[in-house]
Design goal:
Organism: Vibrio panuliri
Structural class: alpha+beta
Number of helices: 10
Radius of gyration: 21 Å
Family: Belongs to the peptidase M42 family.
Number of strands: 17
InterPro entries: Peptidase_M42 (IPR008007), Peptidase_M42_aminopept (IPR051464), Peptidase_M42_dom2 (IPR023367)
Oligomer: single chain
Largest sheet: 11 strands, mixed
Protein name: Peptidase
Keywords: Aminopeptidase, Hydrolase, Metal-binding, Protease
Length: 349
């Protein structure tokens, strides 16, 4: 069984969009002994180079560091706080949640979200964050300022010894874990490709790091790791994105089409090594693959997502077998990526 202790640490870190410092520090510490060098783009995305002496294609495996969360938008005279939403959080999901507020100085406070409006009518403006203060002055004395960040306060845990893992930030700390485990699995292997793991920022607020980091790197191939809500159907239904049935290769989403030759190559590798995968469509959203594939003259890119439950909530669930299968798949995919295979991907004649 894989060691998920790193995932626990990543999940418990405070890292909403634009405030990914804790996550970046964890990843930097883990990757430093593994990779050749680490650099950053102007927004703070982490770019770890694994195989700098390679003469083959430049391959980027990408996952985003940020989680959904909030910013403190207003401090009321009665001590209650109003929130600005970072990412797609349903207000009905946020009600009654325990929240962790982080100040500029790094101090953390617990808050509770409540509302006096009917759930059916909720908007973000109807939510109140209570940190136990009775006045604006008490809030300010705590060190909380407008612009400070807040995330769900859930600590990572396992669901009744089932192996199913739960955390507030599986989107996309599980992708970050997969990226690190991929590099660890390749430690003693010979690679033709110049491999990078890229941990991007601000994906939840418009896939910002997916543009800036890939523009800085300008790879030949991009593979983006992310998650999406699983479908509650039986396997025999023929539906895609079933929980525990393996990683999903995204044929198309709202922002990008999976590069068809790359999609088929990854599918063929999965079949060759007996790794179960699903083909999927994300009609309502996108990933960092959208901006990444539009860099330069265009880059062959593919998103691989893990099916999760309760996405963008305090309790997102991941099946460990899906994550482990994703690491195995990526290991075989990048091991076989060389100049010949890359040239085949870009053969348009």
């Amino acid at each position: 069984m894989k060691d998920f202790s790193l995932l626990v640490e990543l999940n418990n870190a405070h890292g909403p969009s634009g405030r990914e410092d804790e996550v970046r520090q964890i990843l930097s510490g883990v990757l430093n002994p593994i990779v050749d060098d680490i650099s950053f783009d102007g927004l703070g995305s982490l770019i770890a180079r694994f195989n700098r002496h390679a003469t083959g294609p430049k391959v980027a495996v990408v996952a985003h560091m940020d989680e959904v969360g909030f910013l403190i938008r207003e401090i009321r005279n009665d001590g209650l706080l109003k929130l600005f939403k970072l990412g797609g959080i349903d207000p009905k999901v946020a009600v009654n949640s325990e929240i962790e507020v982080k100040t500029r100085c790094g101090n953390k406070f617990t808050g509770l979200i409540w509302t006096d409006k009917p759930l059916a009518e909720l908007s973000i403006d109807d939510l109140w964050l209570d940190v136990g203060a009775c006045s604006r002055e008490e809030v300010i004395t705590m060190g909380i300022q407008i612009g400070d960040s807040a995330v769900f306060a859930t600590r990572h845990f396992e669901l009744n010894n089932s192996g199913v893992m739960i955390g507030k930030a599986m989107d996309d700390r599980i992708g970050c874990w997969v990226g690190v485990e991929l590099l660890r699995s390749l430690d003693k292997q010979s690679l033709a490709c110049d491999l990078y793991f890229v941990a991007t920022v601000q994906e939840e607020v418009g896939t910002k790091g997916g543009k800036t980091a890939i523009e800085q790197l300008n790879p030949d191939i991009v593979i983006v790791l992310d998650v999406a809500t699983a479908k509650h159907l039986e396997v025999k239904s023929g539906a895609q994105r079933l929980f525990g049935q393996g990683p999903c290769l995204v044929v198309a989403d709202k922002m990008a089409l999976g590069h068809y030759s790359l999609l088929n190559y990854v599918s063929d590798v999965a079949n060759e090594f007996g790794i179960g995968v699903q083909r999927d469509f994300l009609a309502g959203g996108g990933t960092d693959n959208g901006p990444a594939t539009l860099v330069g003259s265009g880059i062959a890119g593919l998103a691989i997502i893990l099916p999760v439950r309760n996405c963008h909530s305090a309790y997102t669930q991941v099946n460990p077998n899906d994550a482990i299968s994703c690491v195995k798949l990526l290991s075989h995919v990048v091991t076989q990526l060389d100049e010949r295979q890359t040239a085949h991907l870009y053969s348009y004649c």
